[in-house]
Amino acid sequence: MTKADIVSRISEKLGMEKGDVQATVESFMEEVKASLESGNNVYLRGFGSFIIKTRAEKTGRNISKNTTIKIPAHNIPAFKPAKVFVEGVKSNVQVK
């Protein structure tokens, strides 16, 4: 499912203009992104959490030059689904 599909479904369900729904979805994503960039997690009860994870420093390899490189510690955004979300997917989606 793409962002356009989400906008279409929401506009059909709520009877709103697609442009208004698109602006709302874009605004939501910008707010989540801005919050994470400022160091704050976003918690959506019953859906999940957008959190910042810290990756430790590690040693990697540059295979083209056959050398080792040091990858510094860094933060990455992550999503952790809520328990009810996970249970819903487990019970409703068949294993492929």
Mind explaining what this structure looks like?
By secondary structure, the chain is α+β, with helices and mostly antiparallel strands. It has helices at residues 3-14, 18-37, 83-92, and strands spanning 42-44, 48-55, 58-62, 67-71, 74-81. It has a three-stranded antiparallel β-sheet. A hairpin with a 4-residue loop joins strand 3 and strand 4.
Q: What is the percent of helical residues? A: 40-55%
**What class, by secondary structure content?**
alpha+beta
**SS elements, strand count:** 5
Low-pLDDT windows of residues: none
Number of helices: 3
Strand order of the largest sheet: 1-2-5
Q: Give the termini distance in whole angstroms.
A: 18 Å
Query: Could you say which overall geometry the principal axes of the C-alpha atoms support?
Result: elongated
Main sheet specs = 3 strands, antiparallel
Q: Summarize the helix and strand pattern as letters.
A: HHEEEEEH
Global Rg? 19 Å
Average pLDDT for all residues = 95
- Percent of residues in β-strands: 25-35%
Oligomer: single chain
